[in-house]
Amino acid sequence: MFKTAEHLYLQIADKLEQLIAKDVLKIGDKLPSVRTMSEEQGVSMSTAFQAYYHLEAKGLIESRPKSGYYVIFSPRRMPEMPKVCEAVKKPSEVTVHEMVTQVSQDMRLENITRFASAAPPESMLPAAKISKALIQALRKTPFAGVGYEPVQGNPDLRRQIARNSILWGGAVSEDEIVTTSGCMDALTLCLSAVTQQGDTIAIESPAYYGSLQLAETLGLKVLEIPTHPGTGVDLEYLDKAIPKFKIKACLFVTNFTNPLGACMPDTHKRELVRLLEKYEIPLIEDDIYGDMYFGKERPGVCKTFDTSGLVLLCNSFSKSVAPGYRVGWTIPGRYLEKVLNLKRHHSISSPSLRVQPSPVFWKTTAMSIT
């Protein structure tokens, strides 16, 4: 019954979305009331409401008090695709420290819009529910969580992350997961596990400034790979660059890159994994934005196609639950022991507290709190 209702509301939403895309429904047009839509489509009021709610979540329509639903966006108004950056001739040293420091200082100012930080506004986060869950976790945790956790991380949290792997086509066990203090901590551990100072790594172009800063901190050179806004990194260019420049690892955001926004198709991800397997090159896959999708299904990850353990998947709850709690993790494949040793030397343990929040937290029911 549930699946049928879900299918019906998506059918209605898709039809309306097509009308908006074709400019049959234009920006400013008022949509039929929920009751009218229910009667016209022969569905329940709840199903009609869910269809509107789905379109509202995608930013296509909005609800106006005592007035109804209106179209506010059309794909026809989308700006042109960004141009692909020109290919670079050789790897380069990274010198972004001063720039990133200045950006970080300016982010504290109240009168600026923080484009440099891809994080949800605090006002949109369910702070009260999270606080309640934190108190419940504190009561349930043995000795109020004052003791050390295993270096690999809280078992319950890792078990829940393993369960959630089905959303991206995975089937991992809790023993394959290492919890971290946010996604950047996961990226640092993984990149440190597969490279040495002076090595060259491949990144997207343009790339997230945090990736550049991380490379600079670890003393790595970077080779920027031309990236298409629709398909991601140029695999043909990467294939030629790996042997030519002796690339030791790749660090890519495969879903909704920052700042380009590219989402690599699954066929492209599979091809990327096969390419890197040919050269035995590890891929640090930053999937921090993978849960922030608006389509029918969550986009997959390269880890789904990894059969040799060369993909080190990194993620966190920072974009979907709460950035300040710094709850991250990695599935490092064949590099598990190296990552665990680095974490043991770096932070000894993980935070003890874990929370059992409601299903609204992006289909997750457990998280660790710092």
Please supply descriptive tags for the structure shown above:
single chain; 370 residues; alpha/beta; Arc Repressor Mutant, subunit A; Aspartate Aminotransferase, domain 2; eight-stranded mixed β-sheet; two-stranded antiparallel ribbon; 11 helices; 12 strands; 36% helix; disordered N terminus; disordered C terminus
What report would you give on this structure?
With 370 residues, the chain is α/β, with parallel strands linked by helices. Helix 1 crosses helix 3. The strands form three sheets. An eight-stranded mixed β-sheet has the order 3-10-9-8-7-4-5-6, with helices on both faces. Strands 1-2 form a two-stranded antiparallel sheet. A two-stranded antiparallel sheet has the order 11-12. The chain has helices at 2-21, 34-41, 45-57, 97-106, 127-140, 155-164, 183-194, 209-217, 235-245, 266-279, 336-347, and strands at 61-64, 68-71, 178-181, 200-205, 221-228, 232-233, 247-253, 283-286, 311-316, 327-331, 354-355, 367-368. It folds into two domains: 2-77, Winged helix-like DNA-binding domain superfamily/Winged helix DNA-binding domain (Arc Repressor Mutant, subunit A, Orthogonal Bundle), CATH 1.10.10; 97-103 and 142-368, Aspartate Aminotransferase, domain 2.
